């Protein structure tokens, strides 16, 4: 079993108790010595490594199970390579803040496939200190398009339609608020890596004012996602699944793998 994100070692201890420490490996990008000492004090000596978990631990592979207690934007190729056939990966796949959930995929040949969890879980994002941050454009100063909406202004508080919207954006999106002089939120704000932005009035009264600018119409993507989601009967996470190929193609589907919602490649 491989755990990604050792942290305190608490979850590693649970894995050691359940499986036996000789069957547990764990990796964290940060210092793992404190976890090692804590685990040793309980009599557990799993393999602990310090490094980027996106690479797995090749010299300990193959693994029957890989569990990530840190959020990833995709299922890394190395994890598929290091998993036995019929093995399972449990990971929090998150495209943007709040846009994703735990998914459990089973490997069969070159493909891993499975469903999102019915509940909602969020881990902190995976960090890659050795990789430069992708460049982000400043918010565009072009004049915005102004419309209105009857949807909730804080789009990221509705995780399923927000996930569907982020699937179509193709650019990283940050979320936040515009504050007034008393530091009270007056608008929910989406900003994208390509300079696009959208602001949605947080007033209680409908319809709410929307302003958006830039090459990616961020609010249009949210409206489109809601229309699809409502047409499908507002499905919860457990009706969605994910198929991942060894070539990095990720397909999100509804109910069964043939009913494709969107694909993305990493
Ligand atoms: C939510 S904590 C994990 C909690 C842990 N399983 C426990 O029981 O305490 C997420 C962990 O992922 C680690 N992390 C972040 N980026 C990582 C990466 N690229 N590779 C491995 N670990 C990473 C963080 O340092 C942090 O310790």
Can you tell me about this structure?
The structure is a single chain. The strands form two sheets. Strands 3-2-1-4-5-6-7-13-14-15 form a ten-stranded mixed sheet. The chain has a five-stranded antiparallel sheet with strand order 8-12-11-10-9, with helices on one face. The two termini are 24 Å apart. The chain has two domains: 2-129 and 236-261, Rossmann fold, CATH 3.40.50; 145-231, TATA-Binding Protein. It has 266 residues and is α+β, with helices and mostly antiparallel strands. Helix 4 (159-169) packs across helix 5 (218-231). The mean pLDDT is 96. It has helices at residues 10-19, 33-41, 77-81, 159-169, 218-231; strands at 2-4, 25-28, 47-50, 63-72, 83-94, 100-108, 111-116, 145-149, 173-179, 185-192, 197-201, 208-213, 240-245, 249-254, 260-265. The longest helix has 14 residues, at 218-231. The chain is built from five helices and 15 strands. Bound molecules: S-adenosylmethionine.
């Amino acid at each position: 079993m491989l755990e990604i994100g050792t942290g305190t070692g608490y979850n590693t201890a649970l894995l050691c108790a359940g499986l036996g420490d000789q069957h547990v490996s764990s990796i964290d990008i940060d210092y793992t010595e404190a976890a090692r000492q804590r685990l040793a004090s309980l009599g557990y000596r799993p393999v602990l490594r310090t490094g980027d978990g996106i690479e797995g631990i090749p010299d300990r592979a193959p693994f029957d199970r890989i569990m990530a207690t840190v959020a990833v934007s995709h299922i890394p190729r190395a994890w598929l390579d290091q998993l036995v056939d019929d093995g399972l990966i449990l990971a929090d796949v998150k495209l943007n803040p709040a846009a994703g959930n735990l998914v459990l995929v089973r490997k069969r040949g070159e493909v891993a496939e499975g469903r999102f969890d019915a509940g909602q879980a969020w881990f902190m994002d995976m960090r890659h200190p050795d990789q430069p941050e992708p460049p982000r454009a400043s918010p565009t100063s072009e004049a915005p398009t102004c419309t209105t909406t009857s949807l909730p202004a804080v789009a990221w508080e509705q995780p399923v339609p927000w996930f569907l919207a982020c699937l179509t954006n193709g650019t990283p999106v940050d979320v936040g608020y515009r504050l007034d002089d008393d530091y009270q939120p007056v608008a929910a704000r989406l900003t994208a890596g390509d300079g696009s932005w959208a602001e949605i009035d947080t007033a209680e009264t409908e319809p709410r004012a929307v302003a958006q600018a830039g090459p990616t119409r961020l609010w249009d993507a949210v409206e489109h996602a809601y229309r699809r989601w409502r047409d499908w009967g507002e499905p919860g996470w457990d009706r969605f699944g994910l198929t991942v190929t060894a070539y990095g193609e990720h397909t999100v589907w509804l109910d069964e793998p043939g009913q494709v919602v969107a694909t993305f490649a990493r």
